[in-house]
Design a protein that fits this description.
Elements lengths: L13 E4 L2 E8 L10 E5 L9 H12 L3 E6 L20 H13 L5 E6 H14 L7 E5 L5 H7 L5 H18 L13 H5 L4 H31 L1
Parallel strand pairs: 3-4, 3-5, 5-6
Antiparallel strand pairs: 1-2, 2-4
Helix pairs in contact: 5-7
């Protein structure tokens, strides 16, 4: 876990998405050409633009003449949670919309992406979904837990238990700020378990699993309806 957090400064526009919103931190030189390269960064679980490792890359990239956008996912770095939906490694919709927004705002720039940990997992999943139609000029995956099942098992071994509990505390801290949004949800949810999670697995079982099932069911329903419409 990064220590000594200090709030990163810069423009923080809120981007309204389908089913929610995120906040972006945009940093660039005072005078820069429209075609300057753009780096989009996706931090790790509960991370954001205030984290030391993110600010370090931000400063280095700016010193090389890059614009930098940090994606503060729902609830992270004071990004607003406006709907009863958290971000997770299984959902690439927010990243896809943010990249589309950046490309629309800077059409002459080559846009690259870097992700850490869960942010890297989301990024690589997005790359796989986009295949050869991906609009990014390049991407870097850092410390990616490619197999989340194995990563979860490792969380319960040795010192990783400390890290697991720290991440769970960070998740529940964010969640409790917006808990009222999640009251009365139908489906496979256990909101009290998510709010009082002592491990990342507890939080996933209380909230993330229910969200993933909802997205999967909606996707299957859409595909079924599409099939019916073409008959």
């Amino acid at each position: 876990m990064a220590t000594g957090r200090r709030r990163a400064t810069g423009r923080r526009p809120k981007i309204s998405l389908i089913g929610g919103s995120v906040a972006l931190l945009l940093r660039h030189r005072l005078f820069c050409a429209d075609q300057e390269p753009m780096a989009s960064t996706d931090p790790g679980l509960t991370g954001g633009s205030d984290d030391t490792y993110v600010r370090h890359m931000l400063l280095r990239a700016r010193s090389k003449g890059w614009r930098v956008v940090v994606i503060n996912s729902r609830g992270c770095a004071d990004s607003p949670v406006t709907t009863p939906k958290f971000y997770s490694a299984s959902f690439t919709g927010d990243l896809r919309q943010v990249i589309g927004h950046i490309l629309g705002r800077y059409p002459q720039s080559n846009v690259y992406a870097a992700g850490w940990s869960v942010g890297a997992n989301i990024l690589v999943r997005y790359l796989g979904e986009e295949t050869d139609k991906c609009p990014l000029s390049g991407a870097v995956s850092l410390c990616n837990p490619f197999n989340l099942v194995i990563a979860d098992e490792d969380f319960h071994k040795g010192f990783n238990n400390v890290y697991d509990r720290a991440l769970a505390r960070a998740l529940t801290t964010i969640f409790k700020k917006h808990a009222l949004l999640f009251e009365g949800l139908e489906g496979e949810y256990d909101i009290p378990k998510a709010a009082n999670a002592r491990t990342v697995r507890d939080f996933d079982e209380g909230l993330t699993r229910g969200q993933t099932l909802s997205v999967l069911c909606a996707s299957l329903e859409a595909k079924t309806l599409g099939t019916i419409d073409t008959v």
